[in-house]
Each structure stands twice: as structure tokens, then as C-alpha cells.
Specification:
Elements lengths: L3 H8 L3 E3 L5 E6 L8 H14 L5 E2 L5 E7 L3 H11 L14 E2 L12 H12 L10 E4 L13 E11 L9 H5 L5 E4 L2 E4 L9 H5 L5 E12 L11 E2 L9 H15 L6 H8 L1 H12 L1
Parallel strand pairs: 5-6, 6-7
Antiparallel strand pairs: 1-2, 2-4, 3-4, 7-10, 8-9, 10-11
Helix pairs in contact: 2-3, 7-9, 8-9
């Protein structure tokens, strides 16, 4: 049986005690959800040598090798280091960041994985008042559930319609899953209330009848899931792609300034008021 002190020490390194209280699962870290072929091969080798020949994927796009014996932990750490593999991802700090495949996806409005890599290099593993999760998605499909992270980013394209160039072909209507568009007298009628800013109408339009009025991302704060669920609140504006990291810098700055130990961003917002939290973040941007 692994004692409590050892269990705590190993957890901080990404070795999580299994329910038999004798084995660990070690969590290897991706880069924005990606592993190279070489990294995957090396993880497989460790799984065959020290585990039971298989791996598991976590919900935050990391890879775990279960069934590591306690007496083999230090060997795994040493070999992983030589192979260039990184393990960790727990504790009161920034957890592994998650990005959807918006960078290469047909629906992506922003370079999700590059943004994730920039944030990861700056924040992953750094101390925070409580655990803090970040998620980046490329569109309103929200595959990585951005707004149930402490900080979430959702790529958006706000459309604008030039009726002088619209020929009423209906391509944008076919692409609009929200039914926010219709053709009346061979011209597009736009229902802004139904629109989720996915950008599909802009992508499919061949005549520049639909163009991008704004491109960038909505940013959410205070989301969480699990034992207590809260949908994150939007900062209330669309930020350009090149502004995203700077905005998150200011969110993190404010969280670290006023957050109490053991308090997630959602807890801070509940305590001080979500309106005040958001207004203070926006003030730091000016």
C-alpha cells in the first residue's frame, strides 16, 4: 500500500494512485492536444515495459499509462526524461490546456492550437489560488466546451450583408444551421438573434454579399464542471485573434490579485459579483 505522503508527492508529478492503492497511472502531456509519432512510440514502449501494454486518453487530451508499480516510478521518470516526454498536470495550478482542431477544421475561425501553445508555454503548471482550466475552441460547435472552463475562448466571425452584391443564390442559407437567414425577393434577410457567429455564411458566399464584420473570439470566465457546474460569462465583446493572449494575461493577473487560496475563478466571481470581476478585467485592458 502506498502511504499518503508518497501519494501526494507522486500526484504533483502526474502519477495518480489507482483504486487498488498499489499502482499508479502516469499522465503524459500533449502540446495543444498533439503528440508526435516519436512521442507516441516512446509512450507505447513505456506502457509495454512498465504497464500492461495499453494507454488511455484523458478528457483534457493527455495520455495516461496505468498499472505502474510503485517500485518502478523512479525508473519511469528517468526514462521519460531521456525520451523527452513530460508528465504532470495536477494541483492548484494551471491544468493542461485543451484546444479543438480549429486550426485545420473546416469550421475554425481562429488558430486554436497556436493560441493554446502560446498560453501553454506561458501558464501551464504555474501556481494559482486553486486549479484553473483553459479551453480554446474554433467555433460555436464548442467541441472542447470552452465555457465550462475557468477561462474559455471561442472563435467567432460576425457577418455583415451587402445586399447590393447578394444575388439570392441561397448558398448561405444552406450553410446556416441556425436558420438565421432567409431569402425574400431574392435578397438575404438576416435574423441577428438566431445567429451564433459561426462564420459559415461568410465562407460559402461567392459574391461578397456576406462578409466578415468582425473576426476573432469571445472570451468566457468563471466556467466549471463536475461537483459544481457553472457556465462561464462572456467578457461581452469580440477580441481580435492577436489580442487573445493579452486579454487572458489580464484575467490571470486579476484572478491572482484577488483570489483566495482554494478559490476558483467562479468562486471569486460569486464572492465579488460577476459584473465587477468582468469590469475590472476590461479596465485592465485600457
Amino acid at each position: 500500500m502506498v502511504n499518503a505522503k508518497r501519494q501526494k508527492e507522486m500526484k504533483s508529478l502526474g502519477f495518480l494512485l489507482q483504486n487498488d492503492k498499489e499502482h499508479f497511472a502516469v499522465r503524459f502531456l500533449s502540446k495543444a492536444g498533439n503528440f508526435t509519432v516519436g512521442e507516441l512510440n516512446n509512450i507505447n514502449k513505456l506502457a509495454e515495459k512498465y504497464g500492461r501494454g495499453y494507454c488511455g486518453l484523458t478528457t483534457r487530451l493527455q495520455i495516461e499509462i496505468p498499472w505502474i508499480k510503485d517500485e518502478d516510478v523512479e525508473k519511469v521518470i528517468e526514462e521519460a526524461k531521456k525520451l523527452g516526454l513530460h508528465h504532470g498536470g495536477t494541483g492548484q495550478k494551471i491544468r493542461p490546456l485543451v484546444a479543438c482542431k480549429g486550426t485545420v477544421c473546416l469550421h475554425g475561425n481562429i488558430d486554436t492550437q497556436e493560441i493554446c501553445r502560446q498560453l501553454e508555454s506561458k501558464y501551464f503548471g504555474t501556481d494559482t489560488p486553486h486549479k484553473c482550466k483553459m479551453g480554446i475552441v474554433g467555433c460555436a460547435n464548442n467541441c472542447a466546451k470552452a465555457n465550462i472552463n475557468d477561462i474559455g475562448v471561442m472563435g467567432k466571425t460576425i457577418p455583415e450583408f451587402n445586399l447590393d452584391k447578394c444575388i439570392g443564390c441561397g448558398l448561405c442559407i444552406q450553410g446556416c444551421r441556425q436558420k438565421a437567414l432567409e431569402v425574400v425577393d431574392k435578397k438575404i434577410i438576416y435574423n441577428e438573434e438566431l445567429c451564433v457567429s459561426c462564420g459559415e455564411c461568410v465562407r460559402v458566399c461567392k459574391t461578397n454579399g456576406a462578409i466578415a464584420k468582425e473576426e476573432g473570439a469571445d472570451i468566457f470566465v468563471g466556467g466549471r464542471f463536475g461537483r459544481g457546474m457553472r457556465i462561464g460569462d462572456s467578457l461581452g465583446r469580440i477580441f481580435k485573434e492577436e489580442e487573445i493572449v493579452f486579454v487572458i494575461d489580464k484575467i490571470m493577473e486579476h484572478y491572482r490579485e484577488i483570489g483566495n487560496k482554494g478559490e476558483r475563478i467562479s468562486g471569486v466571481m460569486d464572492r465579488v459579483g460577476k459584473g465587477k470581476f468582468i469590469s475590472e478585467v476590461l479596465r485592465k485592458l485600457d
